[in-house]
Design goal:
The structure holds 2 protein chains of 2 kinds. By secondary structure, chain A is an alpha/beta fold. Chain A has 10 helices and 7 strands. Chain A starts with 5 loop residues before the first helix and ends with a helix. The chains are: A alpha/beta, B alpha/beta. Chains A and B meet through helix 5 and helix 6 of A and helix 3 and helix 5 of B.
Chain lengths: 276, 306
Amino acid sequence: MLNKDTTQLTGLAATLRARIIETSSKTGTPHLGSCLSCVDILTSLYFSVLRVDTSNPRAPERDRCILSKGHGALGLFHVLAERGFYPLSDLDTYGEDGGVFAEHPPTPDHLAGIEAATGSLGHGLPLGLGMALAGRIQGQSYNVYAVLGDGECNEGSVWEAAMLAAAQKVANVCVIIDFNKWQATGRSREIMALDPLADKWRAFGWNAVEVDGHNFDELLAALAQFPNANGQPTAIIAHTVKGKGASFMEDDNNWHYRIPTAEEVIKSKIELGVAL
Amino acid sequence: MRNAFAEEMTRVAATDKRVVVLSGDIGNKLFDKLKGVDEKRFYNCGIAEANMMGVAAGMALSGLRPFVYTITPFTTTRCFEQIRVDVCYHRAPVVIVGTGSGLSYSELGPTHHSLEDMAILRTLPGMRVLAPCDASELRQALHEVLKDDSPTYIRIGKKGEADIHPSPPDLKLGKVLVVRPGTDLALLCAGNMMADTLKAADLLAANGVSAEVVSFHTVKPLDADYLQQAASRFKLLVTVEEHSRIGGFGSAIAEWRMAQPRNVAQLGFGTDDVFMHEVGSQAYARKKYGLTADNIAATTLAALQT
C-alpha cells in the first residue's frame, strides 16, 4: 500500500492541491497558503511512511501523525480522504452546519484518521510525546509524527516538549517543520528570532536535518533516517513555499486569509496540470 | 494529604498497569516507592507544566491513566489551555492533582495560593472537580476516579490535616458524606476546612442550633439528590471553602439554587476578592478572610436571627 514512487507522489500532490484550492474557493476557507505549503509533507507521510489501517483507524499499533498546525486542516482532510479513511464525497459537507469538516481538525472521536484536535498552536508535540511515551510503556513500537508550522515554534510549549523528549531519549518522535517563512502577520524569522532553526533543535538534543519540503526524494530520504539509532528524537526542517502550487499565491502572505475566485481555481488547475 | 497521596498512588499503580504519574519537579523522594513499582510509569516532567499536561493527554489518548501532580496554581491556572483543549475537549481520562491548595502554602505568598482553581476548572465540560476533606477521602477517591473515563481534578492540602472520618468512608463520587447529622441547618464543606466546620457546628450546638455537617468532596457534579432533600429539611445552607467566593463551591451551590423553583437561603464562606500582600501563616490568612470556626458560627447565628 505504501508508495515510494516519487513521480506518482508528485501527481498525487498536484491533485490534492487542486482539490484544496477548489474547496477553499467553494467554502470560503482561509489559511490556503498554509495548507498548500505542507501538502508534500503530508503526502509523503500518509502515502509512503505511516503504518495505518484505514479499516481499523484506532489500531493500538498504528503510527500516529498529528497536524499540530491545525489551520492546515483543509489539506489534511483531503489527504485523509484520498488515503481512504472516508469517501472524498464526505467533503461535500465541508463547512456545513452540523458537520465535522471545518477550519480545524475535530477530535479523534468525530473523524477517522485524526489523532488530535488541534488549532491552538503548540499542542501537537506535547500530545505526540505523550503518545510516544505511552508506546514505550505499553511495549508498542509505533512512531509518532508531528507536523508543526514555523510560526508555531513561537510557542514555549514546543520547546518544553523538545527538552523532555531529549531527556527521556524518545527516539520514536519525529517533528516536521513546515518552514514556509511566514506567519499570520509577517516573516517568521523577523517576528521571533527563529534562526538558526535546525541548530536550535540540535542544541535541544535532537537529530536535525534540512530538506526541500517540496522534493519527495529529499523528504523520503530524511524520513527513512527516522527513528535514529542514536536514541535522539528527530526534527526535519522542511523548507517550503507558502501557497506552493499556484504561482500567483506563492510566497504571498495575503493568501493566509484570501479566498480564491472561481477564475483563480481554474488558473491554479491549469498550472497544476490537473483536469478542469 | 500529600504523603497519603504518594502512598495510595503506589498501591493504585501496583494494581492498575494503566496508571502513570507525572510530576512537575516536586516531591523529592516522595515517589521513591512508586518508582519502585515500575520506573517506566513515573516521569518527572520538569518545570514545564503546559507540556506535562499535553503529554498526559497524549498518554490518556493511548489507553493509559495518567495522574499529573504539582503545586496547584501550576497544574491548573498555569496550563489551563492544555487542560481545556488537550484534556477536556478530547475527553482524555487525565487525573490532575493539585497539592497545597487554597491557603496551604500561605507563607509562600499569592504565587503559590490557589483560590481560583475550582472556579476555572468547573467551567470545563466533562471535568469532575473533587475536594476531599481528609486523607481517607483522598485515598478512596484515587480508586474511584479510575472507574470511568472522565477527566478529573483533585485539590488537596499539604500535610498535617486532621483526620475527619474515624474509619475509611464509603466514598462515591458525586455523593456527599454526612459527617454529622443535624436538624436546623446544613454546613456544607468542600475540602480542607472540615475541622473548622465541625468546630463551628460545636459552637452552634452550644447556642442551641443543630447543624448537619456535610463533606462535599465532589464539587462537580454536585449531589443534587442531597441538595433537594437538604433544601426541604433546612432553612439555611452554609457553604465553607478555602477558595474565592467567586466561582468556587459556594457559587456552584448558588447556581444549583438558581435552577430550583423554591429557594432556600445560603450563606457562603470563602476568601475575598483580593490578593494577600502581607506575610502570614495559613491560620493568619484564614482569620483574615473570616475562615474560622468562631466567625462561621457567629455569622451563621446572626443570619438565623434576621
